[in-house]
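== Folding task for one protein ==

=== Format: two labelled lines per protein ===

==== Paired sequence and structure tokens ====
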Amino acid sequence: MDVDKTDGTAVATAEGLGGAPQGTVLNVAIVGSGAGGMYCATRLLERLPQVHVDVYEQRPVPFGLLRHGVAPDHRKPETIVAEFEELFADPRLRLIAGVTVCADITRAEMAAHYDAVIWAIGARTAHHLRVPGEGLDGVYTADDFFGWYTGLPSAPRIHLDGVREAVVIGLGDVGLDIARVLLKPAGAFADTQMPTEVIEELAAHRVPRVTIMDIAPAHRIRVKTKVLQEVLDLDRLAIDIDPADIAELPEDADQRCQDNMAAFGAAAGRQADEPHAHLRIVFQHRPVEIVGTHGVTGVVGATEAAAPGAPEAELDAARVLPPDGEHAEPPELIAKPVVRNNFPAQLVVTAIGDDVAHLEGLPWDANRRIVPSQDTRLLDDGRVQAREYVSGWARRGNVAGFRFTRMDADAVLEALLADLGHGLLRAPDPGPDKVLEMLAQRGVEPIGWQDWHRLELAEDARGARQGRPIARIIDAAEQDAVLHPGH
């Protein structure tokens, strides 16, 4: 870290960070460099000529789930990332990565030195099934799996040797992405940003059988039809769906439900010639146990018995699904006759959602699992907090769709502009570089835009040597050596 001087004040700046301007400029901190944070940065730069924006990111690289939470063969996020990268050519915008806000620097310290702080943190903690066997080898969360196949250095390395059957628990967009990556020929990812090591693992140990299990009936599955079709339309894929599961369409079914049920029906009736892989979709099954001694060997799913007096039925506490769009906290439990079925698996991935990051010192709504706010303004003990705002997943929870993220950014901007017009945005001790000075004193060396760009160039060069557009560096030590040369 270099030490520079700005207006006679000592400020610590990582290479490529530079110093924040002084004077009448509005200084804004955004915590989170994913889509939620970057759309807020976009709006601020568009509307406020006299603004300086610092974007904080816990990871050493920016853009959150856009880089490490989207399947590599989905290209739209790459376009969005390219747009965000262009923003950093604006000298009013600065990246400060590798810093954990509320740990390396406190919320109070941020508020003391920035005129406004926008909390745009994303998902960090995966939901768990809380069933026996969840800790067995071979059981992973969707976060683990996405981290692996997008090249997150801290993610576990998943080995597919010996995996003949995989079970994905959760039929949402994320679960479908995981199934598609396992079932799709590995060579199809050669022109994507999937790490070379992952492509080699998928090619060497193709998983021939995948089961997707969900607690909901087919007509309650709320996936994007396009994402569903991407899996169902894979070449030479045999698909097993019980026709009874898709026989009835509710009278009040909306267009997405109709389209999804039609897709399920078409797939169930289609025969694959010389199939290379097999997909089974199981509805109305609640995972009650993951079995195995050391490594996983299967998943036990419970489904309501067709007839209460059936000899194979047993009484069990079964989850009652809440109405669409509602959440049961905790889920209602009643005794129902169920049948337990075993699904063989040497790999299990749970794709049942994430919680928004819960940061020390930041208010948290335990019931709604979000950071509380009113008209995007942060709430603490029910009181609006001056100069602090909430956007994206932190405000809404894990809601898919960039449209909602952009809407939040617009709402934050309007609230911020209103508060600015009322003279409410002024830090007690203005000066973002004072935050960098404190970080330096605590031994924290932020990663700036030039550092990140150096990693991009290294991954481009690595990809060129391999005949690929890019080859991500997934080793933590190798990545750190590029980001911090000379260490």
Notes: Residues 1-16, 315-334 have pLDDT under 50 and may be disordered.
